[in-house]
């Protein structure tokens, strides 16, 4: 297991990451053409109203002081009020977040369930007909954009065969497995294609390495060679890839949630962008950043558990 | 050879078919075969060290992998104490896997980076049910002592050791199951020269104490001379000369052995070269020349060598596969004129 010192040092690394993210978000609003007061105010606000807003928002203070306020507010959970929803941003996001988290984890679970057995199957038959067929099939999956796969699934499995609902969100955990099947599958098809290729390649490499040959030569049963020696070594790069693809997946939810009418933060982001709801955009960007950073943290911890060489960081 | 051989190989051939891309298949290119081994005959006696030398690509490692059971020979057979390896099934096969252990060249890729040294050793012990419970721990302690590793190595991972230490871990892992025969494939070639002697001497010491049979595959001739009782010289997957170490090194019969020895660096200052240096590259094992496989590069090659493959026959104290072994040893075989090298 990774040592406490490693975990602590890795946790401390998150602090500067978050600070940097906040600097970017803070500057992003200030760099937009026009001034934030106009963006925040009603369309017909008078000069005096604008001045009041500036005073209230602290926009007359020096930039550094403003940033201080921003950090303080963010840390205490005050992300401002959404212009679109007319409610606190934090409240809106917390309401929608579980849907997206559910969908993402569902998609990740599906991709792993599809990719891992197929990669193992293909790698142990490297360059045989089965391997070539599997790789070819996934190449097709990889070449199609997620929204296109989504629309095809929607038309065929949803509208024509009526196997799954075409959109929406269910009421319970089990219900959602059914309701979110199509969006999760359309994300998973793409992610699993990348994952499958990567895992297959590292499996082939590890299968050929001398310690695996030795394990075989000493007469270790095949199943134990595969699990103890091969998989554990091949998983390291797949875990990295999975972590990175979760980051990708977050931006993917913008499209998927819109196509399948899933009420998550991805669709919320799109709505906020169209409505120019800056506080909401800020809050959502921060949320995405936090999720991605935490995913990377989790990835690093899993990796250091898998690979003792990484523990001394 | 006086004693009954513990491990013997006869007519061993290994051919790999080269993967042919679909485009080549469509264009009707013929399937290509790599002939890694072409009819190897060898026998090793109990307690003996047989050195196996040759250029890179001559099939040394394939031979080692065949003996470890990792590569199935295309033709020929391997016998261990008179029993055919191909006939061993189930329990007997597992016993063979225990009795014949392989040590790889690269101590970096031959140890699983995710396992502690203790786990590696105990895996070997439990797989063959050599020990159980506290017996495992005890045996691991013994092994560390045997290969001179500190006892705290148990909970460490391979990356925490140096190359020499890693190779000693590999030796400990092979010795864990009390094998009778060790196949050392380039045991020390990946190590610093200063560490090489340490590891080689450790192996020789262990061989004495445990009565091991060792197949020492290497390309370093001086090292092989130092460790081996007998030496086999391999060229393009065939044994060209085999004999007692001193005979092969002091009076090589085969022109290839002579060339190898002449090419090895020595400290003595020689007046010119006695034997012509080897010219040209090792031919591709995809297209092995007809007749004597060495005739293309041989300074003594005559017409007969182009047509007829020489058999391994007794010459001097050992066996050599050369039509003119006696003449060459006597210095009466004319050296052919250097043919113009193709540009």
Automatic annotation (TrEMBL), chain A:
TM annotation in the entry: 12-32, 103-124, 136-157, 177-196, 230-250, 280-302
GO cellular component: plasma membrane
InterPro entries: BPD_transp_1_N, MetI-like, MetI-like_sf
Chain ranges of the ABC transmembrane type-1 domain: 97-303
Membrane disposition: Multi-pass membrane protein
Major place of residence: membrane
Compartments, record wording: Cell membrane
Keywords, ordered alphabetically: Cell membrane, Membrane, Transmembrane, Transmembrane helix, Transport
Pfam families membership: BPD_transp_1, BPD_transp_1_N
Name of the molecule in the record: Peptide/nickel transport system permease protein
Native source species: Gellertiella hungarica
Automatic annotation (TrEMBL), chain B:
PANTHER family per record: D,D-DIPEPTIDE TRANSPORT ATP-BINDING PROTEIN DDPF-RELATED, TRANSPORT ATP-BINDING PROTEIN
Any single Pfam family the record assigns to this protein: oligo_HPY
Any single biological process term in GO: transmembrane transport
Keywords: ATP-binding, Nucleotide-binding, Transport
Primary localization class, coarse: membrane
GO CC terms in record: plasma membrane
Protein's recorded name: Oligopeptide transport system ATP-binding protein
Localization (cell): Cell inner membrane
Lineage: Bacteria, Pseudomonadati, Pseudomonadota, Alphaproteobacteria, Hyphomicrobiales
Database matches in PROSITE patterns: ABC_TRANSPORTER_1, ABC_TRANSPORTER_2
Entries under InterPro entries matching the protein: AAA+_ATPase (IPR003593), ABC_transp_ATP-bind (IPR050319), ABC_transporter-like_ATP-bd (IPR003439), ABC_transporter-like_CS (IPR017871), Oligopep_ABC_C (IPR013563), P-loop_NTPase (IPR027417)
UniProt similarity note: Belongs to the ABC transporter superfamily.
Coiled coil: none
NCBIfam families with a match to the protein in the record: oligo_HPY
GO molecular function annotation: ATP binding; ATP hydrolysis activity
Chain ranges of the ABC transporter domain: 9-261
SUPFAM superfamilies (alphabetical): P-loop containing nucleoside triphosphate hydrolases
Topological category with respect to the lipid bilayer: Peripheral membrane protein
